[in-house]
Amino acid sequence: MIAPELLRTAPMAKESDFYTIATLGSHSALQILKGAHDEGFKTLAIANRKTERLYRSFAFVDEVIGIESYDDFPSVVPQLEQRKVIMVPHGSFVAYLSLDEHKRMSIPYFGNKAVLDWEASRELQRQWLTRAGLLVPRQFKTAAEIDRPVIVKLYGAQGGKGYMFVRDAADFERRASELGRENYILQEYIIGVPLYIHYFYSPLSGKLEIMSMDRRYETNVDSLGRIPAAAQEGMDVSPSYVVVGNSPLSLRESMLAEAYRMGEDVVRVSQEICPPKGLFGAFCIETIITPDAQFYIMEISARIVAGTNLFIDGSPYSYLNYSEPMSTGRRIAREIKNALLSNSLDAVLDDSGVRN
Ligand code: AMP
Ligand code: AMP
Question: pTM for this one?
């Protein structure tokens, strides 16, 4: 067999065959592995007992490693470190592995782990976004300052539940006892249309692409409008944001330039705060657009988001850049392939990982 190192210099060779793209079996794994397969890579899903059969049922999944639960993931890391595997992270990595586990994992990793600290802290995210010139909801330091509707976010709140909504300072005073002793943030509540913009930044070409967009369908907040406000009076319902699915959306074209600008500035600032590589690959800015066409930023996700699953076959936006179906998952694999072809794999991997 020809050494892969030699093949790297031969542009016509299918050296991607020598690498396996792996991910955890959940979230957007099907999209990532289909994309990897379409770009000529071998594919591997690490699945738990519940999902193993599902991943084995797809022809583009070459291999499945079954583990009891995702908590056991660290036990397969040593065997993966011995192989030519590149790990592509998605939302379940953040949900199921701690930040420390994430960083300890020394399998070659698509993305920059240094960004994780900035993403994990609401405060650091805010600094990052404001430095990039993006609008974030106003935060109130004390209850007395509240002069508009506010969402109260408990520090420990997870999974889209555990929020309190208050109208004004007096309303907060009346209900503050419900919060107990937990720490919380008082944030201006933005009323507008939620839009999640999926980007891809290529460290190889230095170019940003808008891949697709979605809006989430969240329960129960997206169904409150089905009960007239008058009928809601006195009912004990409070909004929660538990995601159940996503729907596609195309943005009014006159707003697209600002969407692109925001992505570029987020990447630019990331290169200052996490030098030199900054944020690269797939990421998502979660916005709410107000009637005066302002994008308020709720959050940034520094990896592929599940809303891209709508576009496994490409999106109207990705079609503008590629006249072939180009999902975000496939775009990731294309970047890894381009890196291999130009002998610059390091440019698309985290710096802390051990290389094969
Ligand atoms: P899961 O692997 O489905 O448990 O999801 C892992 C994380 O990704 C959770 O925090 C979910 O809230 C988030 N997530 C999963 N599916 C979606 C989706 N379709 N849209 C938005 N977020 C999602
Ligand atoms: P978070 O806990 O910040 O991830 O927020 C969960 C959900 O609440 C998001 O999907 C947003 O749609 C919504 N949300 C969070 N903060 C605000 C805000 N300041 N104004 C309006 N909606 C918000």
Answer: 0.91
